[in-house]
Design a protein that fits this description.
The chain is an alpha/beta fold. Helix content is 38%, strand content 17%. The structure holds pyridoxal-5'-phosphate. The site of pyridoxal-5'-phosphate has 14 residues, from α6.
Protein backbone atom coordinates (compact mmCIF):
# COMPACT_ATOMS: atom_id res chain seq x y z
CA UNK A 1 0.00 0.00 0.00
CA UNK A 2 1.30 3.46 -0.85
CA UNK A 3 1.84 5.57 2.27
CA UNK A 4 -0.61 8.50 2.58
CA UNK A 5 2.23 11.05 2.49
CA UNK A 6 3.53 9.62 -0.81
CA UNK A 7 0.04 9.71 -2.26
CA UNK A 8 -0.33 13.27 -1.02
CA UNK A 9 2.76 14.36 -2.93
CA UNK A 10 1.05 13.24 -6.12
CA UNK A 11 -1.95 15.45 -5.33
CA UNK A 12 -0.85 19.07 -5.57
CA UNK A 13 -3.13 22.01 -4.86
CA UNK A 14 -5.66 22.38 -7.70
CA UNK A 15 -4.97 25.45 -9.81
CA UNK A 16 -8.61 26.60 -9.83
CA UNK A 17 -10.52 26.81 -6.57
CA UNK A 18 -13.16 29.18 -7.94
CA UNK A 19 -16.06 27.01 -9.06
CA UNK A 20 -16.76 25.13 -5.84
CA UNK A 21 -19.06 27.28 -3.67
CA UNK A 22 -18.03 25.87 -0.32
CA UNK A 23 -20.64 25.19 2.38
CA UNK A 24 -20.52 26.92 5.79
CA UNK A 25 -17.14 28.40 4.82
CA UNK A 26 -15.92 31.96 4.25
CA UNK A 27 -15.14 31.24 0.57
CA UNK A 28 -12.86 34.18 -0.14
CA UNK A 29 -10.77 33.72 3.00
CA UNK A 30 -10.46 29.98 2.38
CA UNK A 31 -9.46 30.34 -1.25
CA UNK A 32 -6.83 32.93 -0.32
CA UNK A 33 -5.25 30.43 2.11
CA UNK A 34 -6.70 26.96 1.43
CA UNK A 35 -6.49 24.02 3.78
CA UNK A 36 -6.70 21.00 1.49
CA UNK A 37 -6.72 17.41 2.65
CA UNK A 38 -5.60 14.71 0.21
CA UNK A 39 -5.22 11.61 2.34
CA UNK A 40 -6.14 10.04 5.64
CA UNK A 41 -5.29 7.03 7.72
CA UNK A 42 -6.45 6.09 11.19
CA UNK A 43 -6.27 9.17 13.39
CA UNK A 44 -4.58 11.44 10.89
CA UNK A 45 -5.18 13.49 7.80
CA UNK A 46 -2.52 14.26 5.19
CA UNK A 47 -2.38 17.72 3.62
CA UNK A 48 -1.38 18.75 0.10
CA UNK A 49 2.09 19.59 1.36
CA UNK A 50 2.45 16.11 2.89
CA UNK A 51 1.94 17.16 6.52
CA UNK A 52 0.17 14.81 8.92
CA UNK A 53 -2.59 16.43 10.95
CA UNK A 54 -4.37 14.80 13.90
CA UNK A 55 -8.09 14.56 13.24
CA UNK A 56 -9.55 16.11 16.39
CA UNK A 57 -13.06 16.22 14.95
CA UNK A 58 -13.69 12.83 13.29
CA UNK A 59 -13.98 14.80 10.07
CA UNK A 60 -17.30 16.48 10.83
CA UNK A 61 -18.40 14.27 13.74
CA UNK A 62 -18.62 11.30 11.39
CA UNK A 63 -15.46 9.18 11.03
CA UNK A 64 -15.90 7.42 14.36
CA UNK A 65 -13.92 4.31 13.34
CA UNK A 66 -10.99 6.44 12.14
CA UNK A 67 -10.01 6.92 8.52
CA UNK A 68 -9.65 4.58 5.57
CA UNK A 69 -10.32 1.50 7.67
CA UNK A 70 -9.61 -1.54 5.50
CA UNK A 71 -12.83 -3.52 6.18
CA UNK A 72 -15.03 -0.53 5.27
CA UNK A 73 -12.96 0.39 2.21
CA UNK A 74 -13.09 -3.23 1.04
CA UNK A 75 -16.87 -3.50 1.58
CA UNK A 76 -17.46 -0.37 -0.53
CA UNK A 77 -15.15 -1.65 -3.28
CA UNK A 78 -16.85 -5.04 -3.32
CA UNK A 79 -20.33 -3.53 -3.39
CA UNK A 80 -19.44 -1.14 -6.22
CA UNK A 81 -18.27 -4.10 -8.27
CA UNK A 82 -21.41 -6.17 -7.56
CA UNK A 83 -24.31 -3.72 -7.59
CA UNK A 84 -23.80 -0.02 -8.13
CA UNK A 85 -27.42 1.02 -7.67
CA UNK A 86 -30.93 -0.38 -7.43
CA UNK A 87 -34.07 1.72 -7.00
CA UNK A 88 -35.53 1.74 -3.49
CA UNK A 89 -39.09 2.51 -4.67
CA UNK A 90 -40.99 -0.72 -5.43
CA UNK A 91 -37.66 -2.63 -5.64
CA UNK A 92 -34.95 -3.39 -3.15
CA UNK A 93 -31.55 -4.92 -2.61
CA UNK A 94 -30.35 -7.12 0.25
CA UNK A 95 -27.76 -4.75 1.78
CA UNK A 96 -30.34 -2.07 2.62
CA UNK A 97 -32.42 -4.64 4.54
CA UNK A 98 -29.31 -5.92 6.30
CA UNK A 99 -28.18 -2.41 7.25
CA UNK A 100 -31.67 -1.56 8.57
CA UNK A 101 -31.80 -4.71 10.72
CA UNK A 102 -28.36 -4.04 12.11
CA UNK A 103 -29.17 -0.41 12.97
CA UNK A 104 -32.53 -1.37 14.52
CA UNK A 105 -30.80 -4.04 16.61
CA UNK A 106 -28.57 -1.34 18.15
CA UNK A 107 -31.47 0.96 19.03
CA UNK A 108 -33.09 0.66 22.46
CA UNK A 109 -36.66 -0.40 23.27
CA UNK A 110 -39.05 -0.96 20.40
CA UNK A 111 -37.27 1.45 18.02
CA UNK A 112 -37.26 -1.14 15.31
CA UNK A 113 -38.01 0.26 11.84
CA UNK A 114 -35.53 2.29 9.81
CA UNK A 115 -36.34 4.78 7.05
CA UNK A 116 -33.22 5.69 5.06
CA UNK A 117 -32.18 9.16 3.87
CA UNK A 118 -28.79 10.51 2.74
CA UNK A 119 -27.86 13.09 5.34
CA UNK A 120 -28.72 14.40 8.76
CA UNK A 121 -30.84 17.17 7.27
CA UNK A 122 -32.89 14.66 5.31
CA UNK A 123 -33.11 12.41 8.36
CA UNK A 124 -34.61 15.32 10.31
CA UNK A 125 -37.09 16.22 7.58
CA UNK A 126 -38.04 12.54 7.41
CA UNK A 127 -38.62 12.38 11.18
CA UNK A 128 -40.71 15.57 11.20
CA UNK A 129 -42.80 14.35 8.27
CA UNK A 130 -43.35 10.93 9.88
CA UNK A 131 -44.44 12.67 13.10
CA UNK A 132 -46.98 14.84 11.28
CA UNK A 133 -48.20 11.93 9.16
CA UNK A 134 -48.51 9.71 12.25
CA UNK A 135 -50.82 12.21 13.90
CA UNK A 136 -52.77 12.36 10.66
CA UNK A 137 -53.21 8.59 10.20
CA UNK A 138 -54.20 8.16 13.84
CA UNK A 139 -57.02 10.68 13.50
CA UNK A 140 -55.25 13.62 15.14
CA UNK A 141 -54.67 15.75 12.07
CA UNK A 142 -55.04 18.90 14.20
CA UNK A 143 -51.67 18.16 15.76
CA UNK A 144 -49.49 20.10 13.34
CA UNK A 145 -47.16 22.09 15.57
CA UNK A 146 -43.50 21.15 15.88
CA UNK A 147 -41.42 22.18 18.90
CA UNK A 148 -37.65 22.61 18.69
CA UNK A 149 -35.18 24.32 21.00
CA UNK A 150 -33.12 27.48 21.06
CA UNK A 151 -29.52 26.73 19.99
CA UNK A 152 -30.69 23.45 18.46
CA UNK A 153 -29.13 22.34 15.17
CA UNK A 154 -31.11 20.02 12.95
CA UNK A 155 -29.43 20.52 9.61
CA UNK A 156 -30.29 22.88 6.81
CA UNK A 157 -33.58 21.70 5.28
CA UNK A 158 -36.58 23.98 5.78
CA UNK A 159 -37.90 21.60 8.45
CA UNK A 160 -34.56 21.50 10.23
CA UNK A 161 -33.94 25.25 10.26
CA UNK A 162 -37.54 25.86 11.37
CA UNK A 163 -37.20 23.73 14.50
CA UNK A 164 -33.52 24.66 14.83
CA UNK A 165 -32.51 27.53 17.04
CA UNK A 166 -29.37 29.05 15.53
CA UNK A 167 -30.32 32.52 14.39
CA UNK A 168 -27.61 32.83 11.76
CA UNK A 169 -28.92 29.73 9.98
CA UNK A 170 -32.52 30.99 9.97
CA UNK A 171 -32.61 34.71 9.44
CA UNK A 172 -31.97 34.81 5.67
CA UNK A 173 -34.58 32.28 4.71
CA UNK A 174 -37.94 33.89 5.13
CA UNK A 175 -40.76 32.68 7.32
CA UNK A 176 -39.79 29.00 7.41
CA UNK A 177 -42.40 26.45 8.59
CA UNK A 178 -45.36 27.94 10.39
CA UNK A 179 -46.64 26.71 13.73
CA UNK A 180 -43.21 26.08 15.23
CA UNK A 181 -42.27 26.98 18.80
CA UNK A 182 -39.04 26.56 20.76
CA UNK A 183 -37.98 25.37 24.20
CA UNK A 184 -35.32 27.50 25.89
CA UNK A 185 -31.66 26.51 25.57
CA UNK A 186 -30.31 24.04 28.11
CA UNK A 187 -27.12 26.07 28.58
CA UNK A 188 -26.36 28.61 31.27
CA UNK A 189 -22.72 29.53 31.80
CA UNK A 190 -23.49 31.02 35.21
CA UNK A 191 -24.94 27.72 36.43
CA UNK A 192 -22.90 25.13 34.57
CA UNK A 193 -19.40 26.40 33.72
CA UNK A 194 -16.59 23.82 33.65
CA UNK A 195 -18.83 20.76 34.06
CA UNK A 196 -17.64 17.31 33.12
CA UNK A 197 -20.58 15.30 31.79
CA UNK A 198 -24.22 16.23 32.37
CA UNK A 199 -24.71 19.40 34.43
CA UNK A 200 -26.61 19.19 37.72
CA UNK A 201 -28.50 22.38 36.92
CA UNK A 202 -31.18 22.62 34.26
CA UNK A 203 -33.64 19.69 34.45
CA UNK A 204 -36.41 22.20 35.22
CA UNK A 205 -35.98 23.71 31.74
CA UNK A 206 -37.95 20.73 30.37
CA UNK A 207 -40.98 22.11 32.24
CA UNK A 208 -41.08 24.88 29.66
CA UNK A 209 -42.82 22.31 27.48
CA UNK A 210 -45.75 22.54 29.91
CA UNK A 211 -45.84 26.29 29.30
CA UNK A 212 -45.83 25.75 25.52
CA UNK A 213 -48.64 23.19 25.89
CA UNK A 214 -50.53 25.74 27.98
CA UNK A 215 -50.11 28.35 25.25
CA UNK A 216 -51.02 26.24 22.19
CA UNK A 217 -52.92 23.30 23.70
CA UNK A 218 -51.61 19.75 23.37
CA UNK A 219 -54.21 18.98 20.70
CA UNK A 220 -52.23 21.18 18.27
CA UNK A 221 -48.75 19.75 18.95
CA UNK A 222 -47.34 16.85 16.90
CA UNK A 223 -43.78 16.46 18.16
CA UNK A 224 -40.83 17.82 20.08
CA UNK A 225 -37.33 17.46 18.64
CA UNK A 226 -34.09 17.85 20.63
CA UNK A 227 -30.50 16.74 20.42
CA UNK A 228 -29.59 14.69 23.52
CA UNK A 229 -26.27 16.54 23.33
CA UNK A 230 -26.30 19.64 21.16
CA UNK A 231 -23.08 19.30 19.20
CA UNK A 232 -22.98 21.87 16.43
CA UNK A 233 -23.88 24.74 18.73
CA UNK A 234 -20.89 24.08 20.96
CA UNK A 235 -21.27 20.73 22.81
CA UNK A 236 -24.11 21.23 25.28
CA UNK A 237 -24.93 18.04 27.20
CA UNK A 238 -28.46 17.63 28.55
CA UNK A 239 -28.73 18.47 32.25
CA UNK A 240 -29.27 15.48 34.54
CA UNK A 241 -32.94 14.42 34.45
CA UNK A 242 -33.88 16.79 31.60
CA UNK A 243 -34.60 14.17 28.94
CA UNK A 244 -36.54 12.01 31.40
CA UNK A 245 -38.76 15.00 32.20
CA UNK A 246 -39.28 15.77 28.54
CA UNK A 247 -40.28 12.13 27.94
CA UNK A 248 -42.80 12.25 30.81
CA UNK A 249 -44.40 15.49 29.59
CA UNK A 250 -44.63 14.17 26.02
CA UNK A 251 -46.32 11.00 27.34
CA UNK A 252 -48.75 13.05 29.41
CA UNK A 253 -49.93 15.01 26.37
CA UNK A 254 -49.60 12.47 23.54
CA UNK A 255 -46.75 14.39 21.91
CA UNK A 256 -44.13 12.44 19.95
CA UNK A 257 -40.54 12.83 21.17
CA UNK A 258 -37.79 12.91 18.53
CA UNK A 259 -34.13 12.61 19.46
CA UNK A 260 -31.82 13.98 16.80
CA UNK A 261 -28.84 11.66 17.21
CA UNK A 262 -27.04 12.67 14.03
CA UNK A 263 -23.99 13.48 16.15
CA UNK A 264 -24.56 11.34 19.24
CA UNK A 265 -25.33 8.13 17.33
CA UNK A 266 -22.76 5.34 17.02
CA UNK A 267 -20.60 5.80 20.05
CA UNK A 268 -19.91 9.49 20.56
CA UNK A 269 -21.33 9.33 24.10
CA UNK A 270 -20.03 5.82 24.80
CA UNK A 271 -23.18 3.99 23.71
CA UNK A 272 -24.71 3.06 20.37
CA UNK A 273 -27.18 5.90 20.95
CA UNK A 274 -27.45 8.60 23.60
CA UNK A 275 -30.97 7.27 24.24
CA UNK A 276 -29.27 4.29 25.88
CA UNK A 277 -26.93 6.45 27.97
CA UNK A 278 -29.89 8.39 29.34
CA UNK A 279 -32.33 5.48 29.57
CA UNK A 280 -34.94 7.39 27.57
CA UNK A 281 -36.55 5.92 24.46
CA UNK A 282 -37.81 8.52 21.99
CA UNK A 283 -40.59 7.76 19.50
CA UNK A 284 -38.34 8.62 16.54
CA UNK A 285 -34.54 8.78 16.47
CA UNK A 286 -32.53 10.32 13.64
CA UNK A 287 -29.02 9.25 12.65
CA UNK A 288 -26.46 9.93 9.88
CA UNK A 289 -22.70 10.66 9.91
CA UNK A 290 -21.09 7.79 11.86
CA UNK A 291 -23.58 5.15 10.67
CA UNK A 292 -20.91 4.15 8.17
CA UNK A 293 -18.08 6.15 9.71
CA UNK A 294 -18.67 9.01 7.31
CA UNK A 295 -17.63 7.07 4.22
CA UNK A 296 -20.74 7.29 2.00
CA UNK A 297 -23.65 9.73 2.55
CA UNK A 298 -26.37 8.07 4.61
CA UNK A 299 -28.89 9.09 7.24
CA UNK A 300 -32.21 7.92 8.49
CA UNK A 301 -34.94 7.80 11.08
CA UNK A 302 -35.65 4.88 13.39
CA UNK A 303 -39.25 4.65 14.60
CA UNK A 304 -40.94 2.76 17.39
CA UNK A 305 -43.15 -0.17 16.50
CA UNK A 306 -46.47 1.53 17.37
CA UNK A 307 -45.57 4.45 15.09
CA UNK A 308 -44.69 2.10 12.22
CA UNK A 309 -47.73 -0.09 12.83
CA UNK A 310 -50.06 2.90 12.65
CA UNK A 311 -49.10 3.26 8.97
CA UNK A 312 -49.49 -0.44 8.10
CA UNK A 313 -53.26 -0.23 7.75
CA UNK A 314 -55.56 -0.02 4.75
CA UNK A 315 -55.16 -1.79 1.42
CA UNK A 316 -51.90 -3.73 1.09
CA UNK A 317 -51.23 -2.36 -2.37
CA UNK A 318 -51.25 1.26 -1.21
CA UNK A 319 -48.09 3.24 -0.43
CA UNK A 320 -48.26 3.89 3.31
CA UNK A 321 -45.93 6.92 3.44
CA UNK A 322 -45.49 9.10 0.36
CA UNK A 323 -41.86 9.95 1.12
CA UNK A 324 -38.40 8.73 0.11
CA UNK A 325 -35.20 9.56 -1.74
CA UNK A 326 -33.66 8.18 -4.93
CA UNK A 327 -30.70 7.11 -2.81
CA UNK A 328 -32.56 5.82 0.28
CA UNK A 329 -30.50 2.82 1.37
CA UNK A 330 -27.98 3.20 -1.48
CA UNK A 331 -26.01 -0.04 -1.94
CA UNK A 332 -22.60 1.57 -1.30
CA UNK A 333 -23.81 3.39 1.80
CA UNK A 334 -25.56 0.29 3.12
CA UNK A 335 -22.53 -1.94 2.54
CA UNK A 336 -20.34 0.63 4.28
CA UNK A 337 -22.79 0.77 7.20
CA UNK A 338 -22.75 -2.99 7.72
CA UNK A 339 -18.94 -2.99 7.62
CA UNK A 340 -18.69 -0.03 10.00
CA UNK A 341 -21.12 -1.57 12.48
CA UNK A 342 -19.07 -4.79 12.36
CA UNK A 343 -15.94 -2.78 13.10
CA UNK A 344 -17.55 -0.87 15.98
CA UNK A 345 -18.64 -4.20 17.47
CA UNK A 346 -15.45 -6.17 16.82
CA UNK A 347 -13.19 -3.45 18.21
CA UNK A 348 -15.56 -2.54 21.05
CA UNK A 349 -15.36 1.12 20.06
CA UNK A 350 -18.45 2.31 21.91
CA UNK A 351 -17.13 0.72 25.11
CA UNK A 352 -13.73 2.20 24.37
CA UNK A 353 -15.23 5.68 24.21
CA UNK A 354 -16.98 5.06 27.51
CA UNK A 355 -13.77 3.88 29.17
CA UNK A 356 -11.77 6.83 27.81
CA UNK A 357 -14.33 9.46 28.86
CA UNK A 358 -12.86 10.31 32.30
CA UNK A 359 -9.31 10.63 30.94
CA UNK A 360 -10.54 12.64 27.98
CA UNK A 361 -12.45 14.96 30.32
CA UNK A 362 -9.37 15.48 32.52
CA UNK A 363 -7.11 16.16 29.53
CA UNK A 364 -9.43 18.77 28.01
CA UNK A 365 -10.38 20.34 31.34
CA UNK A 366 -6.65 20.93 31.98
CA UNK A 367 -6.85 23.70 29.34
CA UNK A 368 -8.92 25.71 31.83
CA UNK A 369 -5.89 27.62 33.07
CA UNK A 370 -5.07 29.07 29.64
CA UNK A 371 -5.85 32.75 29.10
CA UNK A 372 -9.34 33.73 27.95
CA UNK A 373 -11.15 30.42 28.50
CA UNK A 374 -14.74 31.12 29.57
CA UNK A 375 -16.02 27.56 29.83
CA UNK A 376 -15.13 23.97 29.00
CA UNK A 377 -17.74 21.21 28.66
CA UNK A 378 -17.01 17.53 28.13
CA UNK A 379 -19.26 14.54 27.56
CA UNK A 380 -18.46 11.18 26.00
CA UNK A 381 -15.60 11.75 23.57
CA UNK A 382 -16.62 15.34 22.84
CA UNK A 383 -15.68 18.71 24.26
CA UNK A 384 -16.60 22.36 23.77
CA UNK A 385 -14.20 25.12 24.76
CA UNK A 386 -15.57 28.67 24.87
CA UNK A 387 -13.06 31.43 24.17
CA UNK A 388 -13.51 35.03 25.20
CA UNK A 389 -14.59 36.76 21.95
CA UNK A 390 -12.53 39.66 20.62
CA UNK A 391 -14.41 42.93 21.16
CA UNK A 392 -16.34 43.74 17.98
CA UNK A 393 -15.12 40.59 16.19
CA UNK A 394 -17.20 37.61 17.27
CA UNK A 395 -15.80 34.27 16.15
CA UNK A 396 -12.45 35.74 15.07
CA UNK A 397 -10.40 34.43 17.96
CA UNK A 398 -11.64 30.85 17.63
CA UNK A 399 -11.12 30.99 13.87
CA UNK A 400 -7.50 32.05 14.37
CA UNK A 401 -7.00 29.27 16.92
CA UNK A 402 -8.38 26.75 14.41
CA UNK A 403 -5.95 27.97 11.74
CA UNK A 404 -2.99 27.99 14.17
CA UNK A 405 -3.83 24.48 15.37
CA UNK A 406 -4.05 23.23 11.79
CA UNK A 407 -0.67 24.71 10.98
CA UNK A 408 0.74 23.05 14.10
CA UNK A 409 -0.73 19.64 13.20
CA UNK A 410 -4.29 19.29 14.57
CA UNK A 411 -7.73 19.74 13.05
CA UNK A 412 -10.23 21.28 15.46
CA UNK A 413 -13.67 22.70 14.73
CA UNK A 414 -15.01 26.18 15.42
CA UNK A 415 -18.51 27.42 15.86
CA UNK A 416 -18.72 31.09 16.86
CA UNK A 417 -16.10 31.40 19.65
CA UNK A 418 -16.29 27.76 20.67
CA UNK A 419 -13.71 25.13 19.76
CA UNK A 420 -15.30 21.69 19.44
CA UNK A 421 -13.35 18.46 19.74
CA UNK A 422 -14.61 14.97 18.85
CA UNK A 423 -11.77 12.61 17.89
CA UNK A 424 -12.34 9.19 16.30
CA UNK A 425 -13.25 6.56 18.91
CA UNK A 426 -9.95 4.75 18.20
CA UNK A 427 -8.10 7.67 19.79
CA UNK A 428 -5.51 6.79 22.47
CA UNK A 429 -4.06 8.62 25.45
CA UNK A 430 -0.91 9.66 23.59
CA UNK A 431 -2.91 11.21 20.74
CA UNK A 432 -5.24 12.96 23.20
CA UNK A 433 -2.11 14.42 24.81
CA UNK A 434 -0.76 15.60 21.46
CA UNK A 435 -4.11 17.03 20.38
CA UNK A 436 -4.68 19.02 23.57
CA UNK A 437 -1.02 20.09 23.57
CA UNK A 438 -1.25 21.49 20.04
CA UNK A 439 -4.52 23.22 20.90
CA UNK A 440 -3.02 24.76 24.03
CA UNK A 441 -0.09 26.05 21.95
CA UNK A 442 -2.50 27.54 19.39
CA UNK A 443 -4.58 29.28 22.07
CA UNK A 444 -1.41 30.77 23.60
CA UNK A 445 -0.05 31.82 20.23
CA UNK A 446 -3.24 33.56 19.11
CA UNK A 447 -3.54 35.24 22.51
C1 LIG B 1 -27.94 17.11 15.35
C2 LIG B 1 -27.76 17.30 13.87
N1 LIG B 1 -28.80 17.13 13.06
C3 LIG B 1 -28.69 17.26 11.73
C4 LIG B 1 -27.48 17.59 11.16
C5 LIG B 1 -27.38 17.77 9.67
O1 LIG B 1 -26.64 16.77 9.09
P1 LIG B 1 -26.14 16.92 7.57
O2 LIG B 1 -25.08 17.96 7.57
O3 LIG B 1 -25.64 15.54 7.24
O4 LIG B 1 -27.32 17.29 6.75
C6 LIG B 1 -26.35 17.77 11.97
C7 LIG B 1 -25.05 18.10 11.39
O5 LIG B 1 -24.09 18.38 12.05
C8 LIG B 1 -26.51 17.63 13.36
O6 LIG B 1 -25.49 17.83 14.19
Amino acid sequence: MTAPSARAAANPTPNDLESFWMPFTPNRAFKAAPRLIVGAEGLEYVTTDGRRVIDGTSGLWCCNAGHNRAPIVEAIRRQAGELDYAPPFQFGHPKAFEAASRIAALAPGDLDHVFFANSGSEAVDTALKIALAYQNVTGKGGRTRLIGRERGYHGVGFGGISVGGIVGNRKMYGTLLTGVDHLPTIYSREQQAFTKGEPEWGAHLADELERIVGLHDASTIAAVIVEPMAGSTGVLPSPKGYLQKLRAICDRYGILLIFDEVITGFGRLGFAFAAERYGVVPDILTFAKAVNSGTVPMGGAIVRKPVFDAFMQGPEGAIELPHGYTYSGHPLAAAAAVAALDLYRDEGLFERARALEPRWADAVMALKSLPGILDIRTVGLAAGIDLDPRPGAPGRRAYEVMVAAYEAGAMVRVTADTIALSPPLIVDDATIGRLTGILAGAIRKVG
